[in-house]
UniProtKB/TrEMBL annotation:
InterPro entries: Spore_V_R (IPR007390), SpoVR_N (IPR056174). Signal peptide: none annotated. It comes from Paucimonas lemoignei. This is Stage V sporulation protein R. Residues 4-393 form the SpoVR protein-like N-terminal domain.
Length: 468
């Protein structure tokens, strides 16, 4: 069945009306049909227009290989906002794009009502496409003024730290002075008010009986060692790197703002995809205006999206968030009703969703288990315990999927000290990747950088930058 733009527009209008009738409350959605290659670019870059960087080209090639091998197919890309923006592949069939329209409305409802989406949208704004395009334009100007090599080195560092934000803090933070010794070249001179208070204290001190001696009020030698714990590395470097130019700071803050925008998508993926899948199935089922053959083709596409198998009923060794989320929402609505489901949709993220609503009966029904790979290549079931299953599903989501690393001090020479909180995230670092990232940071910090961590085997390691 070939696609008809007029038919799709009519079905979109009627599905939106049905969604409102069924109680969905969503931001307006701008739908756009685009070529498959453009859709691939959007999926790889994360945005239709974004700052240029070589790493996106690598991701693009990887995506093409995945698609060529039949492991990946993109039906839609949707950006939450007011309005939301949704891109559909114009070469897909009318049934497929009709299903995608219904799916996107589920996403739009989730984005408007979920507390995490609401919080981060209030901070980062609801016009991500326009904001991202403006940032890309600024970086194009920086390329013209400062050259590709300089701009690319800053982007290398910023994008390497892309997930290293502190989601417990606000996007727009005051540039408060951190408590650590002043690095070389950075003044910590007392203010006029502080000098006046110091002189007043000196005068009153000398008037006390028996206190005619000279009093030294010079600053004491600051204590050595870490006196700081800042996990928002993008914010910290942008605000406190000793010699960073304004345009370099702007790049760091731009990457940070985009990370804040995308965090709810990451933190609610299973909930969000499951909610959208539940609603596209229900909307199609209740859309009596759809032709029978279109409905059957759309439901076939639905089955392909939410299937638990890797292909040809091969056992899947990774969670399909569509399948797991869809199954959980069906289970919740069957047990507690739609209003309780809406409350959960508003109040939870994937951590609360999985821990509170993935029960043993459903895990058994879905045949969920934790596996381990042995040296001989065998894959064996390690556990079917529901608590182990839940935490294994959630482990990659901890701390935005990144190692928990904080800036913990600045030396007298301006060197930066980073510390990996490996006890919290329960893992060592890939040493070769960590080594590259430390060098990226040193390029913009322009002083030595050292990272205290443990390796994959749990042994303490210090990684020092080579650039400075």
């Amino acid at each position: 069945m070939t696609i008809s733009t007029e038919q799709l527009q009519e079905y979109t209008r009627r599905i939106e009306e049905l969604a409102v009738k069924l109680g969905l409350d969503f931001y307006p959605v701008d739908f756009e049909l685009v070529p498959n290659n453009f859709m691939t670019e959007i999926a790889v870059y994360g945005l239709p227009v974004r700052m240029p960087h070589w790493s996106f080209g690598i991701r693009y090639i990887h995506q093409l290989i995945q698609q060529g091998m039949g492991y990946s197919r993109i039906f839609e890309v949707m950006f939450p906002g007011d309005p939301c923006h949704a891109y559909l592949v114009k070469d897909n069939s009318l049934p497929e794009n009709t299903l995608v329209v219904a799916h996107v409305l589920g996403h739009a409802d989730f984005a408007k009502n979920n507390h995490l989406f609401r919080k981060f949208m209030e901070m980062a704004g609801g016009h991500i496409l326009e904001q991202a395009a403006a940032r890309a334009h600024s970086i194009e100007r920086a390329l013209e003024q400062h050259g590709q090599e300089r701009v690319e080195s800053v982007l290398d560092a910023a994008l390497a730290l892309e997930p290293h934000i502190d989601v417990t803090k606000e996007l727009h933070r005051d540039k408060s002075s951190p408590v650590f010794p002043a690095p070389a070249g950075m003044s910590r001179a007392p203010s006029a008010a502080q000098l006046s208070m110091r002189e007043d204290f000196r005068r009153r001190y000398q008037q006390l009986p028996g206190e005619g001696m000279q009093l030294s009020l010079e600053p004491m030698e600051p204590a050595r060692g870490p006196t700081l714990e800042e996990y928002d590395l993008l914010w910290f470097i942008a605000n406190h790197a000793p010699d960073m130019a304004g345009w370099e700071r702007d790049i760091f803050l731009a990457v940070r703002e985009e990370s804040f925008y995308f965090y709810p998508v990451f933190a609610c993926q299973i909930m969000n995809e499951g909610w959208a899948s539940y609603w596209h199935a229900r909307l199609l089922r209740e859309a009596d205006f759809l032709p029978q053959d279109l409905y059957l083709s759309a439901i076939k596409a639905h089955s392909d999206v939410v299937r638990p198998f890797a292909g040809e009923r091969q056992l899947a060794l990774a969670i399909n968030p569509y399948h797991l989320g869809f199954s959980m929402w069906e289970n919740i609505i069957d047990k507690y009703g739609i209003e309780t489901a809406r409350k959960i949709c508003r109040e939870e993220d994937d951590f609360g969703f999985i821990r509170n609503y993935l029960d043993e009966r459903l895990a058994e029904k879905l045949d969920l288990f934790v596996y381990e790979t042995h040296a001989d290549g065998d894959i064996r079931v390690a556990s079917r315990d529901i608590h182990v299953i839940r935490e294994t599903i959630l482990a990659p989501k901890f701390n935005f999927g990144a190692p928990r690393i904080a800036a913990t001090g600045i030396g007298q020479d301006g060197s930066l000290e980073l510390t990996h909180d490996h006890r919290s995230d329960g893992r060592g670092l890939d040493m070769s990747r960590a080594d590259r990232v430390v060098d990226y940071i040193a390029q913009v910090w322009r002083r030595p950088v050292v990272l205290h961590t443990v390796d994959e085997r749990g042994y303490a390691r210090d990684i020092s930058s080579k650039s400075h």
